[in-house]
Structure formats: structure tokens, C-alpha cells
């Protein structure tokens, strides 16, 4: 390995979600020995200023709406002009990403594929593309066993060296602090409320209508309920309209994209994630680190359960969700830092996994 290796990363968007947070954390850990540079179809990327501080470069190859052919040409041009990129690290949600990653493969780059999801909206397309993705991938990484099996199939999981790379966080940043809790609750005017928190892109995968339905049901029993809805996305206006239709809009605080999620979690009383599917959601790791009771859909990998704070509930039964959530009112908050560290999800205790990943580059 050269003194300063540069790895070209695909999969970064402008939304500071799970993949973006993982890559931001990884860039910080690897620099300056290995610099992560980013190729993207978004005009800007999440955490861009911070990433540039670690020495990262950002390359824009055009929006998907312009068509694959234009993206291919831009990607090809980038690879020709930058022969230093011998490894391309694809952080992807489904095997359809092969349509982009095939370009560096054609130009004889080493393809490292990292799965961040446990299902797809278009399962048929994913299954068609999977053998082609497996064919171009030189190395395989996944955020969980479920995400690995979904992306690569069981044969690859059994016969290839698939690295399970936990979506680690700076756990101490999220550790419960009662002073911060009171401060944020006062800022938001929710000092006396029972506060439910949801963090996620407002998109189908995250089941945003389910979030509103569950909250609405809780509000029937607990009139002082408030929902902190953190995130943005393509369904944002539709979900705001849906909240108004359910007559709960005045109790929902749509906070958009925030850079202080760790503070908002201090203010909450529980965390809600009724997703249709996930890989291993980093936001659920953060919520456990904050000491929040976490209510997750049973479609999410059980690998997410790092503590006794997590309960998995069946989708569709909003009364069940309401009853379980409200039963946890007044639950004592305490630091779960040691549990997160012990489970291998703290960045400051992940040296072995980082070294294993570096070898794949």
C-alpha cells in the first residue's frame, strides 16, 4: 500500500442518512493514511465541508434523470483522468447499482461492494441484477448478515469472505445527559410532553404513514404526546398533508434535516422506526446509545438489538404499537455506552474491523 492511498467511493447522496453517516465516520477514521474521494449523481453530498477537511474530493457525474449514458461517459472520463483510483468502493441499497459500477469494472478497477439494505422495492430487478453484481465484485462487505444475504445471496455468504462491518457511531456523543435533555425540551417547548422521536428519510421504505398512524393512536390515549419527525424526502409534503388529514399536525414537529440529532434524542422519551425494510439502521444504534426505548418493525434485522431497549413489533397493528409504547412511559433513562462498546458499535473500539476493511481496498 502506498503512503497515501485514495479510494473512490460511490453511494453518497445529499441526505445525511445511514450510508452518509457511516461514510463520514469512515473517512474520519481512515484519513490521512487512506483518503476517501466521492463520485456522486447529486450536485452536493452530505457532510461535504467536513469531508473536504479530511482531504476528500467530490466528483459529480450528472443526475440519474439525465440518463445512464451521460453518467457512463462522465464516469469513464473521470477514471481515465485519474488512474490513481484503483479501487472503487460501492455503498449500495440494491443490486441495480451494477449499472453504474460496471464502468469502473470495465476499466479494470477493483470493485468492493458494501450492502446497506435488507430488501428492495423492486425485488424482481434486484434478483435479475444480483449475479452480475456478484460477478464484478472483488470484495464483499455488509452492514449485517441480513443485508449480506439480501444483496449477495446465501451462496456468496457461505463461500466468500464477506466482512460484516457494523455501522459504528461515536457512542459517547449520544450518551444520556439529563442537562442536555432539559435544555432541548425547553428550546422546543415540550417540557411537559411525552415525546416520540422518528429519524429517517421521508420515503416509502421508512413507512412514514405508519409513523403518523402509530403516533395518532398514541395521541388518543396520551393527549400530551408530541412527535419529533426528523428528516426530509420525496414524500414530505404528502406526509404533512396526511398528518393534517389525521388531525395531528399541530402535535407533529417536522424538523427537517438536522445536524444535532444526538441532542434531539436526549429530549425524546422513546424512538420509533416502523420501516418496511432496513439493513442495520445506524439511527437505531444511536437511539440505543442515547438510552431510548426503541420500537422497531419486525422487518428489521434482529442484529439491531444491542440492548434490552429494543422491541420488535408487527407492522399493521397500530393498537399494539400504541400499547407497548405507552407502557414504557416513565422508563428510567441511563447510559448504555458500555453495551454499545461491547457490541462492537463504537468507532473508538473498532480498530480490528477497520483493519479488515482496509485490507479489502
UniProtKB/TrEMBL annotation:
Top-level taxon: Bacteria
Domain Glycosyltransferase subfamily 4-like N-terminal per the UniProt entry, residue ranges: 16-171
A Gene Ontology molecular function term of the record: glycosyltransferase activity
Domain Glycosyl transferase family: 181-298
Pfam families in UniProt: Glyco_transf_4, Glycos_transf_1
Alphabetic keyword roster: Transferase
Claim: Transferase is one of the keywords in the record: yes
Gene3D superfamilies: Glycogen Phosphorylase B
Presence of keyword Mitochondrion: no
Name of the protein: Glycosyl transferase
Gene source species: Faecalimonas umbilicata
Lineage: Bacteria, Bacillati, Bacillota, Clostridia, Lachnospirales
Amino acid at each position: 500500500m502506498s503512503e497515501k492511498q485514495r479510494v473512490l467511493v460511490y453511494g453518497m447522496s445529499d441526505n445525511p442518512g445511514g450510508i452518509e453517516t457511516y461514510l463520514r465516520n469512515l473517512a474520519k477514521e481512515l484519513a490521512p493514511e487512506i483518503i476517501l474521494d466521492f463520485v456522486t449523481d447529486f450536485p452536493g453530498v452530505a457532510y461535504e465541508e467536513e469531508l473536504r477537511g479530511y482531504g476528500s474530493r467530490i466528483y459529480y457525474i450528472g443526475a440519474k434523470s439525465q440518463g445512464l449514458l451521460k453518467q457512463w461517459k462522465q464516469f469513464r472520463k473521470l477514471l481515465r483522468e485519474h488512474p490513481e483510483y484503483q479501487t472503487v468502493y460501492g455503498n449500495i441499497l440494491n443490486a441495480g447499482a451494477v449499472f453504474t459500477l460496471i464502468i469502473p469494472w470495465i476499466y479494470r478497477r477493483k470493485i468492493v461492494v458494501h450492502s446497506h439494505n435488507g430488501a428492495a422495492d423492486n425485488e424482481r430487478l434486484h434478483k435479475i441484477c444480483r449475479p452480475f453484481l456478484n460477478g464484478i465484485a472483488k470484495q464483499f462487505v455488509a452492514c449485517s448478515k441480513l443485508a449480506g444475504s439480501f444483496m449477495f445471496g446465501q451462496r456468496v455468504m457461505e463461500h466468500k469472505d464477506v466482512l460484516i462491518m457494523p455501522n459504528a457511531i461515536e457512542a459517547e456523543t449520544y450518551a444520556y445527559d439529563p442537562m442536555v435533555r432539559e435544555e432541548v425540551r425547553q428550546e422546543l417547548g415540550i417540557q411537559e410532553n411525552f415525546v416520540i422521536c422518528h429519524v429517517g428519510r421521508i420515503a416509502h421504505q421508512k413507512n412514514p404513514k405508519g409513523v403518523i398512524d402509530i403516533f395518532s393512536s398514541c395521541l388518543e390515549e396520551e393527549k400530551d404526546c408530541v412527535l419529533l419527525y426528523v428528516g426530509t424526502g420525496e414524500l414530505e409534503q404528502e406526509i404533512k398533508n396526511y398528518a393534517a388529514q389525521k388531525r395531528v399536525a399541530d402535535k407533529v414537529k417536522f424538523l427537517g434535516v438536522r445536524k444535532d440529532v444526538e441532542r434531539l434524542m436526549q429530549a425524546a422519551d422513546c424512538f420509533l422506526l416502523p420501516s418496511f425494510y432496513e439493513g442495520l439502521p445506524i439511527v437505531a444504534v444511536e437511539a440505543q446509545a442515547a438510552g431510548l426505548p426503541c420500537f422497531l418493525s419486525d422487518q428489521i434485522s434482529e442484529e439491531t438489538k444491542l440492548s434490552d431497549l429494543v422491541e420488535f413489533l408487527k407492522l399493521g397493528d397500530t393498537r399494539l404499537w400504541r400499547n407497548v409504547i405507552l407502557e414504557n412511559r416513565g422508563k428510567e433513562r441511563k447510559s448504555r455506552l458500555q453495551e454499545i462498546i461491547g457490541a462492537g458499535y463504537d468507532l473508538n473500539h473498532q480498530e480490528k474491523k477497520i483493519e479488515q476493511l482496509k485490507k479489502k481496498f
